[in-house]
Amino acid sequence: MKKLVLSVALIISVLAGFAQSQNFQTHTLFMYSFTRFVQWPAEESTGDFEIVVLGDSPILNELKAMSEKKKAGSRTIHVSKISSIADFKKGHILYVPTDWTAKYAEVNAKIGESPVLLVTEQAPTANKGCINFVNNKDGRLAFELNQTQMGKHKLRATAELTRMAIVN
């Protein structure tokens, strides 16, 4: 009986880990779409396309794997991690994981009105970035597009991105 319970627990933990990995693969697919369907100001269109992950998140490995295979237009995608918002120097996308949403005001203050796409992971209502990952009514991963935040950061979402998003 103990072996059965342990076997079931092991299977559940493996499946949960697989589901989490699959979820971050979906996050990464969306993130790649953002590189294609968000327009940055002209002065941000040279050099590598920078994606920065704040803190620890399983998405980091998925984004790095994606960056080895894909480009943002003709630009190389560079993915990096910072441990603190004070370490942020420059980037096109800043990914803010769930454990940083409580400090969103600090993140927002550091970024100011710079042309940085703030992407939050399951952010509560008060801590909205430009794009916020959410679960839709069917429990599937979706994203909200915050037009006010996009404008503040001098970014424009294409019509294709707007059609895919929950717009607020």
Describe this structure in words.
This protein starts with a helix and ends with a strand. The chain has 168 residues and is an alpha/beta fold. It has five helices and ten strands. The chain has one domain: Response regulator (Rossmann fold, 3-Layer(aba) Sandwich). The strands form two sheets. An eight-stranded mixed β-sheet has the order 3-4-2-5-6-7-8-10. Helix 1 packs across helix 2.
Low-confidence stretches: 1-22
Number of helices: 5
- Kindly provide the name of the CATH class: Alpha Beta
Q: In the CATH hierarchy, what is the architecture at level 2? A: 3-Layer(aba) Sandwich
Tell me the structural class. Answer: alpha/beta
Q: How many β-strands, per DSSP? A: 10
Average per-residue pLDDT, rounded, comes to 83
- Largest beta sheet, briefly? 8 strands, mixed
First-residue to last-residue Cα separation: 52 Å
Silhouette: globular
Order of helices and strands: HEEHEEEHEEEHEHE
From the structure above, extract its key features.
two-stranded antiparallel sheet, alpha/beta, 168 residues, eight-stranded mixed beta sheet, disordered N terminus, globular, Rossmann fold
Write the layout of secondary structure elements.
Elements: H1 2-37, E1 38-39, E2 49-54, H2 59-69, E3 71-72, E4 75-82, E5 93-96, H3 104-111, E6 117-121, E7 131-135, E8 141-145, H4 147-152, E9 156-157, H5 159-164, E10 166-167
Parallel strand pairs: 2-4, 2-5, 5-6, 6-7, 8-10
Antiparallel strand pairs: 1-9, 3-4, 7-8
